[in-house]
């Protein structure tokens, strides 16, 4: 076998592994997101776009939302040294975790105590428009859900080791259990118990999910008493990740963007927070399914690409992962933007959710779907900057965060008084597009082998494919009569999604987008494998 032939097989195997792993994660998250849809439908049916629901969503956003940020933060800090150690043959265990993990746990335990003792200060800060009973209700639910913060720290440490080993089933599957508990309580007990029971259910389901994760992962991550294999001193030394400050900066940036949106939404008319939450939820359930599944699977591979000594290959790896994320995100976001009114009407257009609430939530969904287009490749850049061991990432990530928050705050300050909740979502899309451009400039300066002109040309081809697919979807909606029933709305959504995907792939084939060639190669390999088995 020649050297070239030997090199091709690992690349193809790697591609097949990525596709298979992404498929597993997408399937699990698809089931989880299906339950999330059911949760949103039940909440909309019980409470509509009301002040009570605004209070629940704000409390959840500032506790469960921060817990999600903690998971990303801890994973970002822990994953690079864990991957590097495991690639050197060291068995996975809790000993691979950086010592700063204890600081994470202590810090967020203190945050939990502060939030439980003085939740009113946090409510006033995050929701300045809430007054009276709505303010008090938010305080109560925030105090209940605060213990989820330290739980999230420990769970994310376990998940990081599992992710480094490409063990996604356990860490992703525990979310299904948590969501199923919430659906059960919403369906059977919320009407008599009230909205506060939803907060208690979030806490209980979080504890149950963590215990399941701990029980399943302990055999992998438990400390081992057997002696470690003797290694040279330079190999045995732990691999240092980037600083904690850099990880905090970029993760707080993403969380602050979300809190800015909802802070501005609290100043709009009643139901603005709920409409924004439904829009964000729908985008996280559909386009977010694609982006989060890819991010989970690609994160270890992106870290490995950036950590190699060949800087040209590292830059090429970043550009490749950026193209993959945008190529996968575009058709889903386009479908969401065109189908938002149908989706919101089919899922929430009953009970206390009236026509005005449907229109506002649909506009928010379309705006956030547009923002997701730019968020996907930008996240690839920020993750690569942090994982790069060749220079400190704090300065570059601080530039992205500070400029990004300034742009977002300015955009929302203009859009919110003019267009309300819908203006917030579309203002977020404009701000994300602008900060994506800033991140590209930072990447070019840091990774000097980053070929910006070639990258822009490749991204433009994917954007042109999305434009042609959007034109086909728009024509379908114009030519077909407007559906009047839930069944026909869902049928129209299915037809719209199928047409957009087919038009997008056809355009990508004609324009010779590189990602289509990769997909074709993987499909041929899988087909040949099944034929051999037959």
Descriptive keywords:
globular; 534 residues; mainly alpha
Structure description:
- It is found in: Cell membrane.
- This is Putative peptidoglycan lipid II flippase.
- InterPro entries: Lipid_II_flippase_MurJ/MviN, MurJ.
- Keywords: Cell membrane, Cell shape, Membrane, Peptidoglycan synthesis, Transmembrane, Transmembrane helix.
- The two termini are 27 Å apart.
- The protein has helices at residues 3-47, 51-61, 64-87, 101-117, 119-126, 132-145, 148-164, 169-188, 190-193, 196-221, 233-236, 244-265, 272-285, 287-307, 311-348, 355-387, 394-446, 452-479, 486-510, 514-533.
- Residues 1-13 and 226-241 have low confidence and may be disordered.
- It has a domain at 17-219.
- By secondary structure, it is an all-alpha fold.
- The protein has 20 helices and no strands.
Question: What's the layout of helices and strands?
Answer:
Elements: H1 3-47, H2 51-61, H3 64-87, H4 101-117, H5 119-126, H6 132-145, H7 148-164, H8 169-188, H9 190-193, H10 196-221, H11 233-236, H12 244-265, H13 272-285, H14 287-307, H15 311-348, H16 355-387, H17 394-446, H18 452-479, H19 486-510, H20 514-533
User: From the alpha-carbon coordinates, what is the Rg to the nearest angstrom?
Assistant: 23 Å
SS-based structural class?
mainly alpha
**Rounded mean pLDDT score:** 77
Inertia-based shape: globular
Low-confidence stretches: 1-13, 226-241
Number of strands: 0
Instruction: Describe the largest sheet.
Output: none
Q: Tally the helices: what do you get? A: 20
Order of helices and strands: HHHHHHHHHHHHHHHHHHHH
Question: What is the rounded distance between the termini?
Answer: 27 Å
Classify the beta-strand content into a percent band.
under 5%
Helix content: over 70%
């Amino acid at each position: 076998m020649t050297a070239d032939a030997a090199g091709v097989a690992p690349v193809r195997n790697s591609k097949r592994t990525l596709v298979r792993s992404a498929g597993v994660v997408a399937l699990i998250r698809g089931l989880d997101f299906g339950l999330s849809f059911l949760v949103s439908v039940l909440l909309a049916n019980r409470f509509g776009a009301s002040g009570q629901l605004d209070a629940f969503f704000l409390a959840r956003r500032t506790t469960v939302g921060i817990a999600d940020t903690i998971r990303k933060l801890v994973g970002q800090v822990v994953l690079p040294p864990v991957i590097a150690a495991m690639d050197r043959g060291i068995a996975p265990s809790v000993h691979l975790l950086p010592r700063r993990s204890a600081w994470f746990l202590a810090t967020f335990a203190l945050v939990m105590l502060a939030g439980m003792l003085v939740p009113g200060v946090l409510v006033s800060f995050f929701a300045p428009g809430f007054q009276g009973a709505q303010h008090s209700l938010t305080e109560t639910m925030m105090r209940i859900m605060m213990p989820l913060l330290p739980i999230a720290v420990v769970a994310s440490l376990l998940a990081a080791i599992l992710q480094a080993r490409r063990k996604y089933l356990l860490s992703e599957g525990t979310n299904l259990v948590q969501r199923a508990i919430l659906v059960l309580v919403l369906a059977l007990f919320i009407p008599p118990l009230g909205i506060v029971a939803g907060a208690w259910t979030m806490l209980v389901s979080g504890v149950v999910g963590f215990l399941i994760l701990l029980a399943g992962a302990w055999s992998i991550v438990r400390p081992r008493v057997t002696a470690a294999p003797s290694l040279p001193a330079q190999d045995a030394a732990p691999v240092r990740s980037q600083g904690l400050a850099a990880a905090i900066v970029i993760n707080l940036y993403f969380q602050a963007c979300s809190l800015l949106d909802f802070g501005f939404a609290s100043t709009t008319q009643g139901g603005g927070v709920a409409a924004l939450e439904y829009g964000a939820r729908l985008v996280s359930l559909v386009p977010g399914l694609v982006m989060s599944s890819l991010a989970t699977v690609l994160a270890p591979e992106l870290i490995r690409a950036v950590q190699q000594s060949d800087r040209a290959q590292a830059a090429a790896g970043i550009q490749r992962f950026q193209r993959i994320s945008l190529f996968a995100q575009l058709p889903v976001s386009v479908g969401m933007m065109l189908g938002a009114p149908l989706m919101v009407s089919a899922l929430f257009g009953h009970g206390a959710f009236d026509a005005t609430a449907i229109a506002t939530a649909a506009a928010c969904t379309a705006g956030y779907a547009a923002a997701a287009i730019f968020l996907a490749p930008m996240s690839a850049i920020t993750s690569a900057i942090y994982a790069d061991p060749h220079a400190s990432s704090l300065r570059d990530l601080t530039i992205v965060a500070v400029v990004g928050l300034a742009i977002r705050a300015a955009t929302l300050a203009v859009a919110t008084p003019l267009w309300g909740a819908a203006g917030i979502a579309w203002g977020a899309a404009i701000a994300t597009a602008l900060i994506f451009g800033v991140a590209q400039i930072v990447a070019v300066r840091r990774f000097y082998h980053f070929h910006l002109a070639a990258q822009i040309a490749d991204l433009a081809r994917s954007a042109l494919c999305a434009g042609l697919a959007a034109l086909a979807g728009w024509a379908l909606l114009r030519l077909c009569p407007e559906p009047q029933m839930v069944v026909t709305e869902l049928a129209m959504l299915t037809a719209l999604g199928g047409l957009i995907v087919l038009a997008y792939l056809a355009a990508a084939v004609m324009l010779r987008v590189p990602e289509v060639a990769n997909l074709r190669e993987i499909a041929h390999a899988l087909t040949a494998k099944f034929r051999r088995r037959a």
